[in-house]
Amino acid sequence: MRLRGRKGIRESLENQPDLVVLDAKPHRGRWHQFFGNDRPIYIELGMGKGRFISTMSATYPDINFIGVDMYDELLRRASEKARAVWAERGVESPPNLALLRANIEWIETMFAPGEIERIYLNFSDPWPKAKHARRRLTHPRFVAKYIELLNERGEIHLKTDSKLLFEFSLNSFSDMGLQLRNISLDLHRGGVREDLVLTEYESKFIEQGQPIHRCEVVVGREALAEHRAAMRRQVEGHKADTPYPVSEPSSSPATTSEG
Ligand SMILES: C[S@@+](CC[C@H](N)C(=O)[O-])C[C@H]1O[C@@H](n2cnc3c(N)ncnc32)[C@H](O)[C@@H]1O
């Protein structure tokens, strides 16, 4: 029987210590102990009903995932979703997933420096009024905290339907001196990308025909070095592929010493 009311929801969350974390502080710097392994930790900030983080955890069992949201009811729904996704695979308790009830405002009290490898920001509230810009999860004051918490391979992946939030975020990442990659103004323009896991909000916006904006931010030193090396290889490859021009365009001015 489903528990109802605030007290009932809280009780249902308290009864799931294998999956739901109501107080992050004891786990700060010790999340690997929670999971019982040393694998990378990817987090989603503002997971909502948890479709994305649940599906990701089942799709990538070698990564640890943490979904963060601040509302008990969303945590309850996310826990049901996660258990349902894993039940399809015959597993009762998701081994690589934690659902954390916390306010992102104090993210530095939940994770230690270098503890996280990837942050997903999926359809974060855009806070459209300029006077609320500080609340946007990509405001430089948040980005500065993310930089601290990410490890050497650290990245931030952002998806949004909001042009305003996307523009604001690109400026914010760039102002913080970060490297952007794979920027798309219409992620699903050629049909829904099957290789990327959709979120609840994303499905809704795709149905409405709204373009989804996406970018990746390369933060960690190792990730940045890898990205630069890949770019150098691409440029070198391109140079090698390009045939050397055998003749000048006929409009070129004559520059021989004979004049
Ligand atoms: C628009 S929803 C997106 C949900 C989900 N990521 C998706 O794409 O379907 C934004 C979510 O962020 C959560 N959120 C917003 N600000 C937060 C904060 N400061 N701390 C924790 N969660 C927050 C909200 O509760 C909400 O569930």
From TrEMBL:
InterPro entries: SAM-dependent_MTases_sf, tRNA_(Gua-N-7)_MeTrfase_Trmb, tRNA_methyltr_TrmB_bact. Substrate binds at residues 129, 161, 199-202. It catalyses: guanosine(46) in tRNA + S-adenosyl-L-methionine = N(7)-methylguanosine(46) in tRNA + S-adenosyl-L-homocysteine. The keyword Coiled coil does not apply. Keywords: Methyltransferase, S-adenosyl-L-methionine, Transferase, tRNA processing. Residues 234-259 are annotated as: Disordered. S-adenosyl-L-methionine binds at residues 44, 69, 103, 125. Its EC number is 2.1.1.33. Pathway: tRNA modification; N(7)-methylguanine-tRNA biosynthesis. The keyword S-adenosyl-L-methionine applies. Residues 247-259 have a biased composition (Low complexity). Pfam families: Methyltransf_4 (PF02390). Belongs to the class I-like SAM-binding methyltransferase superfamily. TrmB family. Catalyzes the formation of N(7)-methylguanine at position 46 (m7G46) in tRNA. PANTHER family: 3-DEOXY-D-MANNO-OCTULOSONIC-ACID TRANSFERASE/TRNA GUANINE-N 7 - -METHYLTRANSFERASE, PENTACOTRIPEPTIDE-REPEAT REGION OF PRORP DOMAIN-CONTAINING PROTEIN. NCBIfam families: PRK00121.2-2, tRNA (guanosine(46)-N7)-methyltransferase TrmB. HAMAP family: tRNA_methyltr_TrmB. This is tRNA (guanine-N(7)-)-methyltransferase.
